[in-house]
Every structure is written in structure tokens, then in C-alpha cells.
Amino acid sequence: MATGKHDSGTRPPLLLSKSYRGVTLYGAIDLNDDEETGDSPLEAVRRVTIDRRSQFRSIVTVSTDQGGFSFRKSVRSLSHKSFRLSGKPCSVRALGGTATVPTQTFNLSKNIIGAGVLALPSGIAAFANAPSALIPVAFLTVVTGAIFGYYFHLIGRVCQITMTATFREAWENTVGETGSTLVAIIIVLKAALGNLAYSMILADTLRSILQWIGLHLSRSTVLVGLTIVVLLPLCLLKNLQVLGPFSLVGLGGMLFTGLAMTVRYYDGSYDVEQNGRFLSDIEEDLKPSFGNTGAGGALSPTFLVLAVMLFEAFVAHYNAPRFYVELKNNTVQRFGLVTAYSFGISVAFFMLVSTFGFLTFGQNCSGFILNNYSPKDILATISRVAIFVAVATTYPLVFLGTKDGILDLLMVPMELQTSQNLNVLTVILLTIITLIAMFVTDLGLVAAVGGATLATAVVFIFPALMLRSAVYDLGSKATSEQKIEVTLCLVLMSVGIMMGIIGFWLAVTG
């Protein structure tokens, strides 16, 4: 809804606000005075409404004395949309977000540090089995974090240049309509892959928890029961804001897991030489195993398997526009601080989990590192419970992106998006995801494939092409620095594509 009033002869903008997934978004319609008469069309406006049609688009309708008109715009953006009212120029402009730098740093760190980090030790095991391998791993993690942080910041800068607030809008305002559907498909697949990975994590985690209390069930049985009893009701919720407080559990669970892995390495509970107390509880192919291939293993092509897994772990770039728009006083410099702090924290945490997971189990690191730990290990069990709660309550948020994206791609009209039809779609999608998760058991493989394909597109390809088009549109106003940056981005894009192709091949062929 909208409100506006005159005060002491001034004509303030018509304010807009809209709640979107628990976040209040602000915009304003500037009703500019006619330069000749001084008249303002403000008095002619009766109502402004925002009708959200999909994840990507909404209809903004302005009702006036003379009738009404509407235009399409992302509900997240509502920025710099020009139109004319009663023959006079008007525009919708952003009022800026309300989130502070510390708040956005926390939220972005939480977004990056997901369950995918628990697959990284298996990426090291793909090319090495000796502790010295951690030297090139540290280098690769820092470099990847820096590059991905740069691209995250770059997307925010493109949003500033184009005055857009979603990934798809930024693409359409730079590259054009061509390829925008592909961008939307990639974003939907990224969300769907996230749901697949979460289903696998939840099934493995719940199975270990049940074993701890004496229930031994097959993975498929646990997965089906989990989908019916837990995931389906959560994905059918109409108000997802009730899940908000559990986000703290997620970050807290990840931090506790990292500390627990550190403790178990130093107390020798899984040390073969010390006859660790939990060794007898785990299967032979999950027990610690080491050899002589250390730092030199980084010269092997299989080193790229870890690289593409890091691609998947660091990717949060589809959310970069949202973080930029919601930042208070969202200058490029302030957004840069959020990016630097968040990716720096993530690099440190990734190194913590990678280091102690690999030092504990070596070449036998599972694709989901908690599978290596005994069901009787109380620290590992607490970690599993915390991560289970966090992932389960995050699942419907990711699933909403999958469902909304499909509705948008299929251009399903609002009149068909009834509660019953949406529930049927939810059941169908969950069934497909669950069936795939029953046959795909290696989280590391999912992370590697996702990183080599979808993450490569979202991080290396799309931002580089958007920057090239944005700088090209500047024409003679483009600086030499901007032109050099475009060249460097295109070079990095080529390197990223090549690494992604090789990493995908190695991950799939084993």
C-alpha cells in the first residue's frame, strides 16, 4: 500500500513498502512538479498496490482520478522505473535498505558456510593421503575465496550501475533479454541441487542419530520417512517466517561441528596408532588411512576436484543483489566491507573443517565427513542433531526458490496458482528429489558436479558478461581501468570454464 501527504508546502514521495519473505522492502514514487505550472500529480493518486506474480516479477498498479496503469518490476527492486502520470514525469526509486554492515556480514557468512563445507575433506582425499597436502589446500582455499569474493562484489557493482536488484534484472539491463531464461534456469537448478544435497545430508544424519539410540534402518527407509514426516509438512507451510530463529542454530551447529572435529583430532579418539576408542564402531573403509602422497599430489589433475568443490562451497552469488539492496547506505565501499569480512570468515572456517577432517581420516574421508565419526561419539551426535535441525528448517526456504523459479519459467498464471495446485507441485518436486537422493549417495560428487557446472556459470560467466556489457554501454565514459577489468574478468572466465570442465569430468569418472 502507499501513503503520501503534503507538509508545509512540500510534496514528499509516495512511499511504498512490501514484505517479501520476512524482509520489508522500501521504495518511493517521486511525483515531480511540472516545471511550468508547479502542479503535482500527487493529489491524483488514490492507491498504489504491488501484486507479486512470481519470484522474479510483480505488477505495480497506480490508481488515479483519471483511471489507472501498471508496470512490471521485481518486488525486490521497485527502483528507477520511469513513467508518466497525468502527463507529468514520475519515477520509482529505492529508499535503500536497513541492514548494517555487521548484520549483513553475519547473514552472508551464514549463507556461505553451509553444509557443503562438510564435503571438503573428501576433496583433499581425492588427490592426496599425507598431511603436507594441506599446504596447497590452504593456498587454493585462500585464492578461491578471494576470487569468489571479488565476483560477489562485482555483481553488487553491476546492480549499482544498472540500478537493478535481482540477478535476472541485472542480466536483462546489461546483456539484454537474450539468455535471461537460461540465467533463470541456472538459478532454479542451483536451488534444486541445494535441495538434493540437503536431502542426502538429512538422510545420512538422521540415520546416524537413529543408530545412536539403537534403531538400525536402511538409508532409503530413513529418506522416505524423512520426506513424508518432516520435509513435506515444512514445505507446505504458508508462513516460513516461523523458521527464522533456527538460522542461528545452523551457524552455531557448524561452529560446534568444527570445534568437535578439532577436539577429536587432538584427543586421539580415531587415531590408529593410539587404538582410538571409537575405531571399532566404524566401518573399515571409513577408518583413518594415510600414505606418502602429500603436497606433490596438487600436481595431479584430481586436484581440480577439490577446486570445483570449493566453487560450490563458496557460491552465494545468486543472492548478491539482495545483499546489496538490503544494505543501509549501500555504497560500493560499504558493500565491499561486507564482502571482505564474510569471505574472510568463510575461508578460515573452511580451512578449519578441511584440516581436521583430513588429518583425522586421511584418504578415507567420506563425502559427508560426519559419516566417518562413530554413532556412539557424543560430540559427533550433537553436531548431527544441530545440523539436522538447521538443514531441515532451511530446506523449505531453498525449496521455495525451486518452486517459484519453475512457476516463473513455465509462466503459470496467478489464477492457476491455487493452494491445491501449489501443494500438488510441492509433492511432485519432493518426490523427484527424494528418488534422486535414494540413488545418489556421494555428497562430494554432488558438490563437485554442482561446482563445476552451475557455480561456474553463476560466478565466472554471468558476472563477466554483465560487466562487459555494462562497460560497453558506457561508451566513451568508460575508464581505462574498467576496460582492463573487463579483460581480466574474461580471462578468469575462460580459466574458470576450463577448470570446471576438467573438474566435472574427473568427478563423474571417479
Overview of the molecule:
This protein has helices at residues 101-112, 120-125, 134-162, 167-174, 180-212, 219-235, 246-266, 303-314, 320-326, 332-361, 378-409, 419-439, 443-474, 480-509; strands spanning 2-3, 14-20, 23-31, 45-52, 58-64, 67-73, 81-85, 88-94. β4 and β5 form a beta hairpin. It is α+β, with helices and mostly antiparallel strands and 510 residues long. α5 (180-212) runs antiparallel to α11 (378-409) and α7 (246-266) crosses α11. It contains 14 helices and 8 strands. The strands form 2 sheets. It has a 5-stranded antiparallel β-sheet with strand order 1-2-3-8-7, with no helix packed on it. The protein has a 3-stranded antiparallel β-sheet with strand order 4-5-6, with no helix packed on it.
Query: Treating each run of at least 4 consecutive H or I residues as one helix, how many helices?
Result: 14
Shape: globular
Low-confidence stretches: 1-60, 62-95
Largest sheet: 5 strands, antiparallel
**Strand content of the residues, in percent?**
5-15%
Helical fraction = 55-70%
Taking the alpha carbons of the first and last residues, their distance comes to 56 Å
Main sheet strand line-up? 1-2-3-8-7
Computed CA radius of gyration, to the nearest angstrom: 25 Å
Strand segment count: 8
The H/E string reads EEEEEEEEHHHHHHHHHHHHHH
Average pLDDT confidence is: 78
Oligomer: single chain
Give the class from helix and strand content and strand pairing: alpha+beta
